[in-house]
Amino acid sequence: MNQWQRRLEYWRRRYDITDVVVWLFGLAILAVAVYGTVRSLQTTTYDSKRWAQFVVYGISQGGVYALIALGYTLVYGILFMINFAHGEIFMFGAFGALFTALALDKAGYWNGHPVLSLIIVLLVAMTTSSVIAVLVERVAYRPLRKAPRLVPLITAIGASFTLQYTARSFFGSGLRAFPEMDMLKGSVSVFGLDIGKSHALTIVVSLLMMAGLYWYVQKTKTGKAMRAVAENKDVAALMGIDVDQIIVRTFILGASMAGVAGVLYSLIFFQVKFFMGFVPGIKAFTAAVLGGIGNIPGAMLGGYFLGIFESLGPALILEGLGIPAPSQLKDVIAFTMLVMVLIFRPTGILGEAVSEKRA
Amino acid sequence: MSKKHWLIVLALVAMLALALAACGGKAEEAPATEAPKEEMATEAPKEEATEEATEEAAAEVTCEDEWGCIEIAPDEPIQIGVMQVLSGGAANYGEAGLGGVKVAQSERPEVLGHKVDLVVEDSQCNAEGGQIAAQKLTSNDKIVGIIGANCSSACTPAAQIVTDANMFMISNSCTAPALTAPDTHKLGFLRTVYNDAYQGAVVAEFVYNILGLKKMATIHDGTPYPQQLQEVACQRFTELGGECVAQEAINPDDTDMRPVLTRIAEKQPEVLFFPLYPEAGGHVARQAKEVEGFENVVLVGADGLKVEKFLEAAGDAAIGMWFTGPEVPQNEEYAKKYVEVNGSEPPAPFGEQAYDAYNIILDAIEKVAIKKADGGLLIPRKALLDALYATKDYQGLTGTLSANEYGDFTSPETTKIVIYQAEKVDGKLDFVPKYVYFNGEFTEVK
Amino acid sequence: MALLELHNVHAYYGNIHALKGISLTVDEGEIVTLIGANGAGKTTTLRVITMLLPPREGTVTLNGEDLSQYRTHEIVLKGVSMVPEGRGVFARLTVLENLELGAYTRNDPSGIAEDLERVFTLFPRLKERQGQAAGTLSGGEQQMLAIGRALMSRPRILLLDEPSMGLAPILVESIFDIIQEINRQGTTILLVEQNALMALQIAHRGYVLRTGEIVLADTAENLRNNEMVQKTYLGME
Amino acid sequence: MNPIWRSTLKAGLLTGAIVIYVALTGMVLSLSQRPVIGKLSLGHVVYMLVFVGMGYITAVRSPWRQERPWLVPLQGAVVGGVGAAILALLPLIGRKVDLGWMFVTAKPELYKFLLFNQEQVARGVLYLILTGAVLGGVAAVLPILPEVLHKALLGGASTTLLLGVLAELVQRTVLKKVLGPFFAYKGLKPTGAAILFVVLTVLFGLQAWWRQKHPKVTKSVAAQEAEAASPLRTTLQLGALLLFLLILPVWILNKDTYLNSVVNLVGLYIIMGLGLNIVVGFAGLLDLGYVAFFAIGAYTVALMTSLGPLGHGYSFWQALPVAILLALTAGVVLGIPVLRMRGDYLAIVTLGFGEIIRILANSDWLKPFMGGALGVLDIPKPKIGNWVLKEEYQLYYLILAGILVTWFVASRLYHSRVGRAWQALREDEDVAEAMGIHLVTTKLLAFGFGAAFSGLSGAIFAAKVGSVYPHTFNLIISINVLSLIIVGGIGSLPGVVVGALALVGLPELLREFSEYRMLFYGIALIAMMLVKPEGFWPKRLKVYPRPQEEDAEASAL
Amino acid sequence: MAPILVARKVTKRFGGLVAVNELDFEIEEHAIASVIGPNGAGKTTFFNCITGFYVPEEGVIEFEGKEIQGLRPDKITTMGIARTYQNIRLFGKMSAIENVMVGMHPRLSLHWWDAVIHTPAFVRQERKVLRRAWELLDYIGLTDWANHQANSLPYGAQRRLEIARALASEPKLLLLDEPTAGMNPQETAEMIEFIRKLRDDWNLTILLIEHDMKVVMTISEKITVLDFGTKIAEGKPEEIQRNPRVIEAYLGRGAASGLSAAEAPAQAA
Predict the structure, then answer these.
(1) What end-to-end distance do the CA atoms of chain D give, in Å?
(2) Could you tell me if A270 lies within 8 Å of chain B, comparing CB atoms?
(3) What is the mean pLDDT of each run of 10 residues along chain B (446 residues)?
(4) CATH classification code of E1-80+171-269
(5) What is the CATH number of the domain that holds B280?
(6) Which of A50, B269, C102, D469 could form a disulfide with B217, with the two C-beta atoms 3.0–4.6 Å apart?
(7) pTM to 2 decimal places
(8) Positions of E strands within D125-227
């Protein structure tokens, strides 16, 4: 038998009709997407600059997703639980930032000493998020660390509701406007593209934070301890690692990322509301899974990927199919893409390949 | 364990109650077959009002209303149902509505010597929320009427239920045309908020005739109010000879509007009409300034955006933007009272409409209620509803209100639509009225 | 005074009474072995000492200090180090990172470097593979890593749980040689072993556990000659 | 300082933090209009319960309970007093500093209310601290009393309070006939409360006394085996339950529209829960997009039967099988691509699927067929012959029938080859496959059944509500259903019912708490899982009796 | 007798690592054979190739004359190969008897609709399933534990239950992965007897992986030694014990000599 026949034989034995259906399913979606893309490129009049703009918009939105996704991934990597309340931790970070910014604005510091103000606001947001995260960990997760897997998922959902409606009771149900910063008005030009200053800031800060996080987890003593705790908590304790403390630190780290995301979000979108954590939370969860949950660069990649697809997808894929109001369907694109990626890479873009099962 | 204990006790009590009920039935010497009928009568005083009640009251006043009466004991308050969305993403509308009612209540806590008590229910922003809230309120036979709900998806099933129960609801923010369209209107449904059909057409006329622009783009957020409003506007605009170059949609929780704006920019509209709510609207207004191709596009919003919150959300990006909205005279006093009673500024519009609804209901009660000698009240249901439909030229916060046969308190004949423009007044953003539309004509405001 | 002393220790897994009043001592410089069937409570005893499973009754003292007031990670600071059953190396971390984590509680870089050298002399294979992920090591190498890692905290007493489990006979011998060598260098050892034959060869004293109780305690030599031990645990008939 | 006093003080600080939280959420003030017993309002209850609860917990945990019981009430008083003193800081600070720019709820009315409307601040603060100390102290007395008395008082007091809070429920049901006179316009009359308290305390006392004399013994497995062989008792219990269910809407709930509507909603969630339980509980596949099938069922019935412009004029009974079939198909179609994913990957993909269905139903694209945001209106009620199931108590029987059918199917499947295969799959997918279980068909079967049940529920829902809107079918429903099966006890059929009652029924009854409903819901989810991580009615192993010899012979023939 | 399982030039790679290298292997029907070798030599990988968890890159595995390499595990089990696991893998939250019932899965044929309407065939089949499950538990002496959760069983009982579960699928070839791991000499001796009895009672072919040399030497009719995925020796126990390559790579001199010493009494018994 030659190589080719052998391959064929292998496939024939290993896969059955359902696998074929899955691939056909995937291919059908892909075909529709390609057809839509080709048609869009033929029929629409967007020039290359417009396309580039879509990508830039996607990256800055993706940066926020990515920062939130990092928190998901960090916690997941250590506790193997989906921290459903993470979106709310982000929201509290934004509220922390809001009140600080308002106070600074009142005192005239906001535009007087913008850089200093930004640093203060970032610190406050990170602290607020961290305090909330630690509280949630202590009350809702720690007592259930040995419970079946789905139980902490439910307390996480409970924590999410509790935080959301606590914020609603405390701060009201309407939106609160975040003060503008003169320094961040206008745009910078990169490669002939105009990028809003706050967006540029988001992209830069999110990249820096992620690089810092990666370094922290890989190189520092605490980071190594985190990875050890992720693998085996009992053995980690036998090394003299305080497992509870490391878990708390992980939450703090993840929450700090969410706090930073809260500030950046506020600087781009200028609105803070009790409900604001819900959608980004879901999106970040999606991003984390897309990149391979538990994987730090994966979360980052997933976030950007998702942001870009949401921004680009409606124009690129749907418009050519003649679908009215395609922007409304951007989440459909995002989730379909997620399914596609997972069909062909069941553990996400950078997830560990478990193509073959362990026995 | 202890939880199980009291469950058992509760079950015991329940059984005891059953047994007593059965015995009681016999003791009253009523034939067993008639017992359920009697129960039905007490449950909802429909045509045959409670017999004992009639007998007792016979001495002085009787209830002759074909739908029965609400009986209020001397020291008993009058109950008004309030159903608003109080949870979920749209909770701010419900909060504003409830706040408006509370302002009204604080000003007028009593009617005919009886305290007014609010029975508040969360109708959420969906069908089953509206259904359950309406069912709960209508099955309380002491409730006179209902103020609410907010979302058309909650109002539609509620209207049916309320009508079936011979009750009524006055919505403060359900603007969907279908609710008061001749063929779909339910008798128990009324609204102090205006009908979108009218406002949308005015937007089209304003853009086409006054601004003189011929290419319009619209954005809605997939919820009933914006979707219908832009639909009507585009229809009228096309009739007038303009062109709707893009009808786009987003999701209410979206934040990044730049992609959709970029796509719209490509169609080169002269005007963008986005009758959204403050959150999404704020994002659109701000981000339109960042997207190439929007430099000269005129922005137009509707009354959903004509709120303080939107100016906060949009900041300076709102300057020069147009808004339409029915004439709601700026009422300093209401705004002040609102803060006094509720502790914060209204988080959303539609509080005034709820305020008016409260007063309209109280006025109607005053008209039809029958006083008993002991100080109690009889409120005939049918007469009350008739009185509501008979409301004429009521001077409310939101203008002059007169009910038509389909439950609309506002109408093109009575309601003026005002066109505002956002401007900086004394360094502070504000809505400045520019035109008033009435009886098919625009008049400039000086 | 004994270095480690357990007195009348009772421990439970949920409702299962796993240890029913265990008392034992380990003196400075000794190798003491616990032998017994599966489920007899050997591993549980080690888990109690490290407070992975705090005892419900009884005391565990190290040098006279009650250990039950501490949590697992603090026990390590007191000088107890454990090589868990099934080795428990951190598979995704490199060999070097594993060893560094062994010294997590310490803050003397020079001392750590010194101990690292010592481990590498003890296990030259580890030095060759220090950059490799621990999961890619063979079973024997993982066992060496686990022992080396435990030594990195400079323990006064080393608890070993089934170091020979699942290893080829040829490796078992060398592991036991190394255990003896470690003991010679001054570390007290408490050894839990299935392979009673080997364990009793290197140990000074031994305890025999059966269903959560100590049924025999004696010097290793006497145990080797004990009829019951020979029959049940050494497989001689 | 004595460590016990130190921890008592800590408990006091915690109490303070909790009451401040409660006060700042605004519920104290906004619930102050609603009386529970006499003048005692719900607003009072929500914050005073914190003092009582913390005092009680401190006492239960107190190491002095045995040795020095006389000190325990003092501990409780300290906890309550310190907590109240901290709460008193809120009005004291709030009167000087404007907290309103941050906390919308921090307003003068709240301060006034907390200080018992006293003009003199000092006096108000004193009252507050005294209240806290007394409540905490009294609550701390309970645990040092003899067990029977302890349980009797606790049961009596909490049940009386509960009746006061749920006054409306009582007044709407048959309970009114007995308890009616105890109730005022809203809440309990003080005298009524006192009588109820005495009666209930006696009842609880008798019950506790009985329990003490006859302690419960857990049955040995052997006894269970014997019982399983002769199931008479179970049959009797089932009969009684069925009877109760049949008379529930008319005789117990008095045909009350609202209560029946709540019961019906619970019923619909039970059907969904039974379906999701197959997917998550039996087969261990985490599905967060379960609402999609509910939506498909609802939209199918809506579009087929609606009398509006979008409808096609079929009857409910024609639409019902189509709805179930479509949902099932959707389940299989979704099932196929996601089969190879595990755990959390599956969760997010299913979540996405749920969102996709909702967004598509809402989209301008499909608006001509599905009505977009304006939904599908005028869905007629089901008819049997000429009998229209118009009222909620009539629809109840339809839903009950649905529950019985789904229960029957789920339970029979569970105790068969397929059910065992699902469980094996949940425990260890690889080994299950090595046991000869075909993963794909087994998973698809679970997905299909789950979807079909959900479709059934959705179909009835559409008919019940009369109009469907895309917004209804959001993620919260999926989350709710998932929560209820876990709170009930994963994999357990009765657990689904308990979970639905706790997570759908209770919040509906608490509708008058309006804006705090979701807050309570969230807190309740956490609390329930902390108290009972295995669920309220955990799954029990089925006991297989050893077959009798005759059996063996019979089957051998 | 004809070989029941034949492997020819089976190769399995993980990335750059060759776990099993051109392995030739045969086992006669009704035989008991062992695979031994140092940790990581590829023994379990080879098992996984047989049972379909892994697909070998190259080579052929024939079971009763049919090629099975690359088939899914469920198909292979249905053909008559069952196995146990190195670290016990029971369905922990199911009862002991349910574990056995799951084992019967490939021998049952009725569908879900039979279960829902309880067709007579289904009722008959379920009754048979239950009876056989009790019989199997009787056979391994676990009837007292029948209705207990599997992971609450004592260690030894779990090992036996795993074997009962495998037997329930009515295999012709049974693969045992370290069946005596974690047992003391007494228990081990019992297990050896049990395995022999198993073979005779059920007419099985048994292939095992074992580390305990005493077990391997006592029970096996043929031993295959692997090192780094390659077969380095094969033959009868005595031959293996004397094979210098095996001693060098696996047994070690001490163990080899100690083994024969310890073996003597065992053989005497």
Answers:
(1) 81
(2) yes
(3) 49 46 39 38 41 47 84 88 82 88 93 90 82 85 90 87 91 88 90 85 92 93 85 92 92 90 91 90 91 90 85 90 80 87 81 93 93 88 94 87 90 82 89 87 84
(4) 3.40.50.300
(5) 3.40.50.2300
(6) B269
(7) 0.89
(8) none
